Amino acid sequence: MQASSRSSSMERTSQWVSSQDVPTDLVVRVAGAAFPLHKAVMVPKCGYIRKAVAMATRPDPASTVEIELDGLPGGADAFEKAARYCYGANFEISARNAAALLCAAAFLDMQPADGGLARRVEEFLAQAGLRTLPNAIAVLRSCEGLLLTATEELGVARRAADAVALRVCNEVLFPTRSPPEWWASELAALSPASFHRVFTALRCRRAGPEVLVAAATAYAELLLADGKASDHRALLESVVAVLPSADDAPLPAAFLCRLLHDAVTTEASAKTCRDLELRLAAVLDQATAGDLLALALDGAGECVINTESLRRVIAAFVERESGAGRNRRASLSGAAALGAGALQKVAKMVDEVAAEIATDESLPISKFVGVAGAVPKDARATHDCLYRAVDIYLKAHPELDEIEREKVCSVMDTLKLSYTARLHASQNKRLPLQAVLSALYYDQLKLRSAGVGHDDEDNDARSEAGSARMQAKADAALARENEALRSELARMRAHMSSGVQQSKGSGSRTAATATVAGKKASFFGSMSRTLSRLNPFRAGGGWSKDTSSIRDSRGGAMNVVKPRRRRSSIS
Fold this sequence. Notes:
By secondary structure, the protein is mainly alpha-helical. Among the domains are: 8-117, Potassium Channel Kv1.1, Chain A (2-Layer Sandwich); 401-449, no CATH class. It has 25 helices and 3 strands. It has a 3-stranded mixed beta sheet. A hairpin with a 2-residue loop joins strand 1 and strand 2 (33-37). Helix 9 (156-173) crosses helix 11 (192-204), helix 14 runs antiparallel to helix 15 and helix 22 runs antiparallel to helix 23. The longest helix is centred in the last third of the chain and has 39 residues, at 464-502. The two termini are 76 Å apart.
């Protein structure tokens, strides 16, 4: 292999060496290629060779000198063009070899009075090499790899990156091609390190956020689309490492969802995944339910595989909004309302996603509750959409027992269901008994409280005494309702017990009567404790809720306006 490269280099050299009749007295070997040359031609124009020849010819100046140049930037191709320059032969300078020729000229110390090879390369860069975007990108690409260190020392890589940034800014202001953002696809040819240089140059030139976003998204999408499966993970981590910060250019939520999905699928580093999760949390209110589903589902969109990243993104957004909400409340009420609107929007979007993933029969309760419960309950104005997601999950998992169904229902608040949703919940056999009783009890409480409050609102609402009387009347109405409910349940239980007694023989009548009496006492005690837990005025666990928020804002009795009926979307 080396012999063939040497012979080819000698053949090429013989084509442009003008003094072929004069025997060669200098052999330069570069990366396995041998170049037979003349000292008289190379020494005056090349300081490195002049010093090497002077050191090698002290015993016999007429002897042939051999020089090894294995560390020459640009290799044999760059040296051949440098030797052509010394012999006055023609050679081509292009955007692909200009950086290598500059590095070779600096290495060989080719600095005669007329500027030498470096001057000719600089003229080319100024007139053509850095004047167009494709050429500037080609020059920057040639600075990668083995030439990186040399081009950084000479400043060629920095100049090329700045030229790319300048041409991009010019294209944004004055497009020369169609479509206007054709330049973004050109950047995909760069390595992540070179793209980072271009992005830094764009920031130095104060390019607009839309330019930074277009450059980053186009570069990442095109580069990852062309990447091979073997190096996709490393390429993804490199791209994420050079993405602009959220302060410089917030990236689109859909784009970040796709990147995060790829990072999880390829098992990228925890640092890369966490970086993408925080970036997505910063713009989560701009995402759609489809974007989050693309993150949670597999590539075919059939199986839920990534709920943990989704939960962490939602939790990071809630934490971010909670901290920002405190600052907004301390400054402007309008900004606080804007932040609350973003949280409600994300809550609605999360409910839609929860309803979609609930159909997966293999989805555990913990993962469903983790996603649906990542947003605080008070962030939702109504829990109708969340109830729909819960009902879909219970329908897709009919094998759940009572305790497991209560765990699923723990993510929603029955006090925040609309009239239509509560009516559906009261007849829903999939819900646990505690949820059904809570919905029924609260509905009757609102009706009773509204009836009592309307009678005396005009006369007593303005005074504290009137407010106290209205509260006492509401409490009395609640007590009567509790007693009526207990009596009704007791009569129902007694009727069922009497049927059991009649079916038994007369010989066991006395024992059955004693057993029924004992069961009655046990039933009354259990029902009393259940109703006590369902009392919305009593703080505690379970499904009991504080109903103080439904009182009139003036401190009087409750004046509940019957909500407008709408078609239920719950199956």
